[in-house]
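Worked example 3. Consider a protein that binds arginine.
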Amino acid sequence: MKKIFAALLAGALAISLVACGTSSSTASVASAGDSSKVTSAPASETPTLDAIKQKGKIVMLTSTGFPPYEYLGDDGKPAGVDIDLAQLVADDLGVELEVIDMNFDLLIDALKSGKGDFIAAGMTANEERATHIDFSQSYTANGLLMVVAAGNDTIKTAADLAGKTIAVQSGTTADLYANDEVEGAKVLTFNTPIEAGTAVAGGKADVAIIDNLPAKSIAESSNGKLQVIEGFITEEPMAMGIAKNQEDLVEEIDKVLAAAVKDGTVEALTDKHYEIAGA
Ligand code: ARG
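Given these inputs, the predicted complex is written out as structure tokens:
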């Protein structure tokens, strides 16, 4: 199953690369054809980036309550790995960063309707979402974990989820998993994974399904009420989301993320925010 997904994802990336290759070669043929006839300036190869620089700001869409990637800092403002990575993109472009915080299940529509320039929300790049938006390169290998009440020893593996009441954040891959992969589950959806954890701590759900580090962070902040079951039940790459047909912005974000992965920035930011958010 993992292999099939990887192949599909590779296929989706290849399609977007082919599409991009076609349009740029068409452009160069047109201008090389007869340059003396070109009266207006050639179209920019970076129209999205030009528009962002013109505005003087880049707008990131996120959904806090997902430490260490995005959470509300002591000043009440969104903080976290994704915000710092987005700041690197803004700095590289020489523009301000604006962060808009909303429910996770609204992010893709908000991006498509132009409310922001990109999504940075610990979002899993999957094939269904790739039919709506494009994804950057992955910056974190991630997976889903099960979170249960401390002392609960009835849930050890994914097979034990059958027939259970499962708390998830609405619109996430955990929501999909609980609905599509688990036999006879009762799925309770919440606006944040923190609330999903609270439902388990309060006995309203048997188990929450939450991404790796957010699950651990939430369990650590639960005053001993929650425990994480080790072992990913899925493996999912996290990436940033960009509206379709903005290849220049995808390339810019990829450039910044590739450098941040390579020089250890992503790892250092993850450690730093895990400490702060868990404190
Ligand atoms: N990785 C999961 C998904 O893409 C959960 C992401 C939740 N992110 C957040 N900022 N609340 O569905």
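Take a moment to read the result before moving on. Strands lie at 57-62, 71-72, 78-79, 96-101, 118-119, 134-149, 165-169, 186-190, 207-211, 226-242. The longest helix spans residues 2-33.
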